[in-house]
Design a protein that fits this description.
This is Methyltransferase domain-containing protein. This protein starts with a strand and ends with a strand. An eight-stranded mixed β-sheet has the order 6-7-5-4-8-9-17-16, sandwiched between helices. The protein has a three-stranded antiparallel β-sheet with strand order 1-2-3. The protein has a two-stranded antiparallel sheet with strand order 10-15. The chain contains five helices and 17 strands. The mean pLDDT is 97.
Length: 236
């Protein structure tokens, strides 16, 4: 077992972090809440850049039944969680979640303070549209804070799959990650983002200022691969 001492940004526990596996990304758990590194990095970024988030209008895309999403929903009165339900009209509700497509949101212009999501962008079909939609629906000064794996050995984004109206075209062997509303099928990876991702975000949406951080801090359990977190601020 590998251990690190520190305090969890998600639950505040000072019991530290432990892993039975060298792949810390999915196995370095907080002893208090069971959070994994990307959840702690995300929460650290949220508390650092928007410590007043509890008083804001927040949209979290694809929340899972874990400590981070539970805390957001519990502590923020303006919290809205959404899932991509293919069979529910956009903007309507199912099981407490709003049906939304990150590439075509139903939120009004400049109606939100924060867009939040963990490891969602690598599954969308058109990340350029998702970026523009987040900017459109944020108030001036609003933030989009999200994690997504970045492959720093890739100079450019690597497209893995394309969704069409009549199906999916695979450009590489299919890769699936966990999906909170489809535990059997999972979520298909459409992109492996490369070093140019931040540059592309600015090209897609000039009204976003982009901060790309890679925290390396054992005291918050930010250890291991794929520690990238993005903070996008709407300028105008």
């Amino acid at each position: 077992m590998i251990e690190f001492h520190g305090t969890c940004p998600v639950c505040g526990s000072a019991e530290g972090f432990e892993s039975q596996d060298a792949w810390f990304r999915d196995h370095l758990f907080c002893r208090g809440c069971g959070s994994i590194p990307r959840e702690r990095i995300f929460t650290w970024a949220l508390e650092t850049f928007r410590p007043e988030w509890r008083q804001m209008q927040i949209h979290e895309c694809a929340p899972s039944e874990r400590a981070v999403s539970r805390r957001l929903a519990k502590e923020c009165k303006g919290y809205i969680g959404s899932q991509y339900f293919s069979d529910v009209p956009r903007g309507e509700m199912r099981d407490g979640f709003r049906s939304e497509d990150l590439e075509a949101l139903t939120f009004s212009d400049q109606s939100l303070h924060l867009h939040l999501h963990l490891d969602v962008m690598e599954h969308v079909n058109r990340p350029d549209r998702a970026i523009r939609e987040m900017c459109r629906t944020l108030r001036p000064g609003g933030l989009a804070i999200f994690t997504s794996p970045v492959y720093h050995d890739l100079a450019e984004n690597d497209r893995r799959a394309i969704y069409f109206e009549d199906g999916v075209e695979h450009l590489a062997p299919p890769e699936y990650h966990g999906n909170p509303i489809d535990t059997e099928g999972g979520a298909l990876v459409t992109f492996r983002f490369g070093r140019n991702f931040s540059t592309l975000i600015r090209m897609w949406e000039p009204n976003f200022a982009v901060t790309h951080l890679i925290p390396d801090d054992p005291s918050i359990g930010a250890v291991g691969g794929f520690r990238d977190v993005f903070v996008l601020r709407r300028i105008g």
